[in-house]
Amino acid sequence: MATSTTYKDEVHPFANNTETRPMKPSSTQMTNLSSDDVRQSANDGVGACGWILVILSYILVAVTFPFSLCICAKVVQEYERAVIFRLGRILPGGAKGPGLFFILPCIDSIMKVDLRTATFNVPPQEILTRDSVTVSVDAVVYSRVYNPVISVTNVKDTQYATQLLAQTTLRNILGTKSLQEILCDREIIAQSMQGHLDEGTEPWGVKVERVEIKDVRLPQSMQRSMAAEAEASREARAKVIAAEGEQKASRQLKEAADIIAQSPIALQLRYLQTLTHISAEKNSTIIFPIPIELLSLIKR
After folding, report:
1. Where do Polar residues bias regions lie (predicted)?
2. Residue 132: which region, alpha, beta or left (left: phi > 0; alpha: psi -120 to 50)?
3. Dist. CA 203–CA 207, nearest whole Å
């Protein structure tokens, strides 16, 4: 018989409470219970031939000891779990590890399952949006195996199956969205996709931890149209800002003209200030045939 130290991966949050609360088992728990019952009954009914093979395996291990240790001793890393099949049936107790354990030659086979988070890219999908725009969208999915026994017995390749499900889920979700929603609501779309994937991969013993939308590529014609629209919008805003500036400048000039009209001395000071600016910009001689004092006599 295979011996190993079994570690409990998950602890119930109410394990230390004295009050017992009835909990409805999930579909995964029901699947685990039924699978364990089937495996237990299958091991109980191995039959005479099975017990004979088990006894012969023990005899073979004893005769070839210590050379049999090279075949019987197996090591499982901290991030791995081992599912052992004896005569085609899973041994009671579920997955083994981490640590050192022993198997029987010829009748036991072992499958190691990696529990670390795995990532894969969803290939770019050509999707027709709700407003009849064709876009190419790709994503990245983060998933891990949380039940090694179910992942081995219920699906052949968990990562490949999850990748195909992610492709179809991405197409189904984005097909109901408009182009504006796809460009602006990436986080909401990723969360919705994660929920659908997690629900679909639960019977496989796989947990989808995160989904991210990497890139949304538009056709060249659509890019040019959006660029032209954005440029026209910017030009329109620039014209509006320029018109508002002219309006404010006209109001300020009108107020300045009213102030100068109320004070003739201010007009003379403005005239002298203009002369100062002219002399500073160009080193040339400027002759004014009419003195500024005669302007008041002309007005009279």
Report:
1. 15-33
2. left
3. 10
d(CA 203, CA 28): 6
Q: What are the domain boundaries of the chain?
A: 27-114, 118-222, 255-300
Strands 80-86 and 108-114: antiparallel
Q: Contact at 8 Å (CB) between 74 and 100?
A: yes
The helix/strand/coil state of 102 is: strand
- Beta strands at 99-102 and 73-76: parallel, antiparallel or unpaired: antiparallel
Average pLDDT over residues 69-76: 82
- Which of 3-7, 127-131, 175-179 has the weakest average pLDDT? 3-7
Beta-bridged to residue 110, according to DSSP, are: 84
Task: Record the tokens describing residue 198, joined without a space.
Answer: 């997690």
pLDDT, the chain, mean: 75
Cα(8)–Cα(114) distance, integer angstroms: 16
Does 194 or 279 have the greater pLDDT score? 194
- Ordered strands of the 80-86 beta sheet: 89-90, 80-86, 108-114
Q: Are 292 and 268 in contact (CB under 8 A)?
A: yes
pLDDT at position 228 over 60: yes
Q: What is the CATH number of domain 118-222?
A: 3.30.479.30
Q: Of 42-46, 221-225, 230-234, which one has max mean pLDDT?
A: 230-234
CB atoms within 10 A of CB 15: 6
